[in-house]
């Protein structure tokens, strides 16, 4: 199948009530590894790039990597720009060929957020791309974006008005979730997802997935969370695996970076297949 639109992936997941891993990659190794994991699991996959990653690697280089590595991928995959408040970065990524973007204007007043999101949706449509919208800041700092302060939630009516007037393809509500590492098991507002989906059948994006329990994932996915974001878990695994295998190389006196890279890649691939199994997307490729 290969590269498809975000909407094609999340609409199927939403209709069949499974979740698709939306994993924030860091570099070429993690990109290659999550793609390999998706193919092994026969799962659709949303590959996410933070603004920090886009800027550190360079958007043209990052997109060239994506084009090259997805050339022979045979499961549905899509490239998504995560949490971006910068309209210039959104334009750059859409121009290059990103399939979707999350325009994060959650720090703005709702009406200004709505006005600009309508513009971003129009811009994305001109590129055949899709948009995830957000009006409430998800607690926690991720890749230099966000705040540890708990933001105010909007009413159901305000959220529904935003979804309907902007025409966003995916909506990311605040339900007690948070970016980063949870100090304890999060207390989540499951009913808020049910209320949103019951009033407006739009696929929901679940942010702050790293650290949630399998039961929490499955419950939220059954209610309409079709896109499940994973970022911190990958960062932790990548660094811990790199450290562990580097230390083993040092102890053995064998300084062979490709051996470490292969071990880290295997760990990331296994994480991807495990997420697909937990979220119900394994075997759902078409």
UniProtKB/TrEMBL annotation:
The family database entries (InterPro entries) matched by this protein are listed as:
Aldolase_TIM, Class_II_FBP_aldolase, FBA_II
Report the superkingdom from the record: Bacteria
Listed binding positions for Zn(2+) 2 are 104, 134
Q: Which cofactor does it need?
A: Zn(2+)
Q: Transmembrane region positions?
A: none
Q: Where does Zn(2+) 1 bind?
A: 83, 179, 207
The GO molecular function terms of this record are: aldehyde-lyase activity; zinc ion binding
Q: What residues form the catalytic site here?
A: 82
Which residues are dihydroxyacetone phosphate-binding?
A: 180, 208-210, 229-232
Name the UniProt key words of this record, in alphabetical order.
Answer: Metal-binding, Zinc
A biological process (GO) annotation for this entry?
Answer: carbohydrate metabolic process
What PANTHER family does the record tag this protein with? D-TAGATOSE-1,6-BISPHOSPHATE ALDOLASE (PTHR30304), D-TAGATOSE-1,6-BISPHOSPHATE ALDOLASE SUBUNIT GATY-RELATED (PTHR30304:SF0)
Output this protein's name.
Fructose-bisphosphate aldolase, class II
Q: Which organism is it from?
A: Salinibacterium xinjiangense
């Amino acid at each position: 199948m290969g590269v498809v639109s975000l909407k094609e992936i999340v609409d199927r997941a939403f209709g069949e009530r499974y979740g698709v891993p939306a994993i924030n990659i860091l570099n070429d190794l993690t990109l290659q590894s999550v793609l390999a994991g998706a193919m092994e699991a026969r799962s659709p996959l949303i590959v996410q790039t933070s603004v920090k990653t886009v800027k550190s690697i360079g958007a043209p280089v990052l997109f060239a990597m994506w084009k090259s590595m997805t050339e022979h991928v045979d499961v549905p995959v899509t490239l998504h720009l995560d949490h971006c408040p910068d309209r210039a970065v959104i334009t750059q990524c859409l121009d290059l060929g990103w399939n979707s973007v999350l325009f994060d204007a959650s720090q703005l007043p709702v009406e200004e957020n709505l006005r600009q999101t309508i513009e971003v949706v129009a811009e994305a449509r001109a590129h055949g791309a899709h948009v995830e919208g957000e009006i409430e800041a998800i607690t926690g700092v991720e890749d230099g974006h966000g705040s540890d302060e708990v933001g105010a939630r909007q009413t159901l009516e305000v959220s529904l008005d935003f979804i309907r007037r902007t025409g966003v393809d995916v909506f990311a509500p605040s339900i007690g979730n948070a970016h980063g590492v949870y100090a304890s098991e999060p207390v989540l507002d499951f009913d808020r997802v049910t209320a949103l989906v019951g009033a407006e059948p739009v696929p929901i994006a679940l942010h702050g997935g790293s650290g949630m329990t399998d039961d929490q994932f499955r419950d939220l996915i059954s209610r309409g969370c079709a896109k499940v974001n994973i970022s911190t878990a990958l960062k932790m695994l990548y660094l811990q695996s790199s450290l562990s295998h580097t230390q083993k190389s040092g102890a053995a006196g064998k300084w062979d970076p490709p051996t470490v890279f292969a071990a880290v890649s295997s760990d990331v691939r296994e994480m991807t297949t495990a997420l697909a199994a937990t979220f119900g997307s394994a075997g759902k490729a078409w």
